[in-house]
Amino acid sequence: MSEKVVRIVDEGLLPLIKPPDPEDLRAANRQRDKGLVDKRMSEDEAIARFVADGMYIGFELYGSVRCPMSLVRALIRSGKTHFDLAGQGVHEADLLLAAGIIERIDCTYIGQEVYGVSAPLRRAVESGQVKQVVEWSNGAITWRFKAAAMGLPFIPTYSMLGSDTLKYSSAVAIEDPFTKRPICLLPALTLDVGFIHVNRADKFGNCQVDGISGFALEMARASKKLIVSTEEIVDSEVIRAKPHLTVIPWYNVDAVVHAPFGSWPGEMSGMYERDEEHYRMFIDASQKAESTDAYMKEWVRDLPDHQALLEKIGRERLDAIVIGKGA
Amino acid sequence: MSMAYSPKELLICLGARLVEDHTMAFIGTGIPMLAASLAQKIYAPNLVPVFEFGGVGAVLEKLPLAVGDMRTFNKALQASSICDIMETAQRGFIEYGFIGGAQIDMYGNLNTTVIGDHAKPKVRMPGSGGANDIGSSIWRTIAIMPHDTRRFVEKIDFLTTPGFLSGPGAREAAGLPAGTGPYRVVTSLATLGYDEATCRMKLLALNPGVTVEQVRQNTGFELLIADTLEENHPPTDEELRVLREDVDPDKLYR
What we know:
The structure holds two protein chains of two kinds. Chain A is of the alpha/beta class. Chain A is built from 13 helices and 13 strands. Chain A is 34% helix and 23% strand. Chain B is of the alpha/beta class. Chain B has seven helices and 14 strands. In chain B, helix 1 packs across helix 2 and helix 2 packs across helix 7.
């Protein structure tokens, strides 16, 4: 019996919210329907079918950019709660936090970029409403998805070494048996349900994204169930004409939701700019709990569905952000 | 008589002057975006701005509002993904990284996570984002931030992004790639670098009208002072004109 052991040189102090379980993902994937079946459904139906209280969820890309905001609003309206969140978030994270339905966060960045820190995040974390925040870097959280997408339990990186970001994570640094140098191991992160917004998809769930793909490839493949919303539903011939543009294949997709302006008030590459006026209005409203609640009521809870939201925004205002029309 | 300028405009100009042409620079959100845009228009037309969600080599005609928005890949050479960018950094392609921070210590370690205790923070900030990845893998990291004793502190509340950690040899001991680390700090008062032997922050150049004493008073730790201090010249009329008319005409950052 060999006495050789791999030495742990540093260790995150916080427990893993979602321990890696590649066998579980393999088993789930084995059961998924590989047939070319029509997966079109509404936001509400997708959430009713695939989302349950207490699940671990994640969104891509992020709040102001190609984000499945119609699904975020439908999720909040559904009343489902106690979620754990993979947090690379802006507007979507603010809404989920303001709704009070997030329990724990694997956090890399939740903020408002040019507009500064997120007031909903501050209130939710500083009050203890969010029970636990585990730290990661942006690279790290994406590589965690990548590890899961590879079907493996972990992936190594230099990121986080020597930092409190590692100390307040659930990562482990070991002495690499090959180079004999310390290396950080990131545990694979599998989502119970992932939510991704794309430019176009066919009814089976073959998805194309214009512009940067963010972490869509990795997160899609790290999701046990994946709900895709899309600006356009196209005929499969459109997909087959340029199959090299398919970033997420149908077998990884469980629901296809048609959501024009689905990223609003965020932007959609090549289609529309972000609605800066509304965005700023939200930032102002989000500074205080009362005005945030009023915003949530008016723009989320009191609207039955995405169509009602688009009618409330109005054609004129939407045209103003469409590239080639107003923008 | 040159034009009047704001402290933020000076920061942006100082940042822009540090950008080297024909290099790849990882651009964080906020002031670094303005500095990169200004640099591309005046000093470094062949700069390749790299944004973490996949934009590589954009022409920064309109100012990005987000590190993943479509302006980060406007007329770009490549629109890829966050894994591709972070892995490109990890295998040594990216020379400069520009980031901000709420707190910095004498070894250039940065905090963007919490003020107070992690479990029960006084202020919860956004977290690392790409900053930790930049500070870990980029050859030379440049921090851009206002200069006062709340930000330049003896002990940061949380070490989000590694500078020189606890001093000489600490990065290597932690496993971070050799030859990487903090390079400059551009502030509202001065330009600072790091002493080679001790890895401690060192005053290199003063901003217009600023004294060494003023920098000391606004720094919460003992600062090394270079033998010969340079003086940063104020924003030129050209810098201010390009900044106001071309970089940020909508005054999003002012």
